[in-house]
Structure formats: structure tokens, C-alpha cells
Amino acid sequence: MRIGLFMLANRDAPALVERIARAEEEGFDGVWFGQVMGPDVMTVLALAGARTQRIELGTSVVPVQLRHPIFMAQQALVVNSATGGRLTLGLGPSHRVVVEGMWGLSYDRAAAYMREYLSVLRPLLHEGKVDFQGEFFRVNVSLQVPDARPCPVLVSALGPVMLRVAGELAEGTVTWMTGPRALETHVVPRLVRAAEAAGRPRPRVAVGLPIAVTSDPEAARQRAGQLFQFYNQLPSYRRMLDIEGAGGPQDVAIVGSEEEVERQLRRLAAIGTTDFLASVFPGGDGDDAQSMGRTREFLRSLVGKL
User: Fold this and answer.
1) Which residues pair with 280 in a beta bridge?
2) Which residues pair with residue 6 across a beta bridge?
3) Its pTM surpasses 0.90
4) pLDDT tens digits for 285-295?
5) Is the Cβ–Cβ distance between 205 and 173 less than 8 Å?
């Protein structure tokens, strides 16, 4: 299981590039950025390509509603070229409260929209052309992107229909706020079955969770409940927490001593997680910087060993 860092795009582009370069120096397998209302993470990753050599550069995730699949393909191909083929493109449908409440767009039939989106995007990434006539997209176009090389595509799939779409049309899924029980009984088996039925390779399962190495797990869980309470209000995450039997995000956070955290990470690897996306948060030992430093240092020691 690869270990990457889930980062917030909450600084200017030069500062974010420095963070990525530091993660590579520390030996992490990847860095992953969500796209919300901050800097354009695709541009940040392209800039980081010139400062790094080997680290995987991922999005987790870019919402599909604001970027037509033609534009998404053009941007992904250019970023992948600029990074030497190290881009992994995570895409997602976002959430109704964002799509309808903030952007004024429709969130209806999100899985059907994603299926058509991927049906346009993937041929453009792999062949540079597509002729597709659907309900949401009617596209007949050829791209002219020099040094075009396709990148892996992951989908933030949690529900049964979206997991089938991800298994059939993408390289896997990227999850958030989804614990080991939900992964083992719901996400992984559905995703793998869909990929097998479509004759595709075993899919990647990239799992993002809060994590803190700490001597005070109870205090760390309380802090996680405060920091991540917003996700408890989003229906897609709440369904995963319900499958887990979790009261809130604090119950799926990975917390404890070095030994306890390693045990929890090894369980994730055993149930099929291919990539762990660590959202490091302050867990109560010392000040916030010291707490997060302890966690980050321990994660570094596990790279290549899970």
C-alpha cells in the first residue's frame, strides 16, 4: 500500500509547490489535492512537475460539473506531460449542496452524468478523439495535444451505481470518510466485481482518512470531531459512516500510538486499499506543529513497508 499526503490547497501556488517538493524529499509516494474554492490544483500540479522527479501527483478530487470533458482531457494531457507522466486524475460529482446551492447547476442523476462524462473523457485521453452521442453530452472532436500521454482516472465512488461506473470505466476509486468496515463490505467488493465483469484490471482503491499519532487517542478523536464535523452533514459520507456504525468522522479517524496506527493501516492494506491518503491533523501531543510532525515522521517510516 502506497502512502501519500492529502493536502489542502490553502496557500498560494509557490507555497503549495514547496510543500509538494518537501513531500518528495521526505519519501512519500504521492501528494493529493482536493479542488474546492481555492487555487486551481491542476495548475499547481503542473508547476510542481518542474520541482519534482518521482512523486505521484493526484487530485482527490476535481468536480466534473465545472469542466467539460473536452477541456478536462486537454488539461489532464498537458499536466501529465508537464509532470513526466505522474498525474493521477481523481474526479467526482461533488455534492448537491455545492452543485445546486453554490453553482446553480443540476445534481440530478449524478451517476448517469459521470458515466457519460467518462465515456467522452477516456477516448480523448487514450486516443485523442471521440464521437459520442448521449443525453448529457453530444461530442465529435479530435484533440491536437503534443506529447499526449493518458493518465489514470479515479472516481470518488461511494454508492452502488457510482462504484459500478468506476469499476467499468476508470482505474479505481478514491474515498473519503469511509472506514474499514464500509470498505471491506461495500466499496471494495462492488468495485472489484464491476471491474472483473468489464474485463478490466483490478482497480486501485485510494482511501483518504484523518490520521494522528498520539498518546491521547480520546483527545485526538475529540479534535477530529471538531475539525471534520462538516463532513457529517453530507449525505454521501453520512451513508458510509452509517455502514461503518460510526457516530461521526471522529470514529473513522486513524488515531493512537505508533503501534496502534500501524495496525490500523495494515488492516486497510489487507482489505484491498492500494493507496492511503493521509490527512494529518493535530492530535494533542504538544503544539499543533509538534503533533503533526510526529505523525508525518512515522508515516515516512512506513513508506514501502505496508
Assistant:
1) 211
2) 32
3) yes
4) 889 999 999 99
5) yes
User: Angle, to 10 degrees, between the axis of helix 288-302 and the axis of helix 258-270?
Assistant: 50
Domains and CATH numbers, the chain: 2-302 (3.20.20.30)
* β-bridge mates for residue 199, sequence order: none
> 501529465: which residue's cell?
80
Cβ 217 vs Cβ 224: under 8 Å: no
Under 8 Å between Cβ of 209 and 179: yes
7: which 3 cell numbers? 493536502
What totals of helices (H) and strands (E) does the chain contain, helices first? Answer: 12, 12
- At a CB cut-off of 8 Å and minimum separation 6, what does 219 contact? 283, 284
**pLDDT at residue number 301:** 98
> DSSP per residue over 89-119, as a string?
EEEE---HHHHTTTS----TTHHHHHHHHHH
Whether residue 9 contacts residue 16, with contact meaning beta carbons closer than 8 Å, is answered with yes
Q: Which three cell numbers stand for residue 78?
A: 498537458
Residue 302 to residue 21: CA distance in whole angstroms: 19
Q: What is the pLDDT of residues 42-97, one digit of tens each?
A: 999 999 999 999 999 999 999 999 999 999 999 999 999 999 999 999 999 999 99
Average pLDDT over residues 163-184: 98
**Rounded to 5 degrees, what angle do the CA atoms 208, 217, 302 make?**
50
Nearest CA-CA partner of 191 in 207, 171, 211, 208: 171
CB 3 within 8 Å of CB 299: yes
Cβ burial of 3 (10 Å; 0-12, 13-18, 19+) is buried
The Cα–Cα gap between 59 and 92 comes to 10
Find all residues with CB under 8 Å of 43, minimum gap 6, and list them. Answer: 13
Q: Which residues contact 127 (CB under 8 A, 6 or more apart)?
A: none
Return the SS3 of 133: strand
Q: Within a 13 Å sphere around the CA of 77, how many CA atoms are in the beta-carbon half?
A: 23
Three cell numbers at 230? 462538516
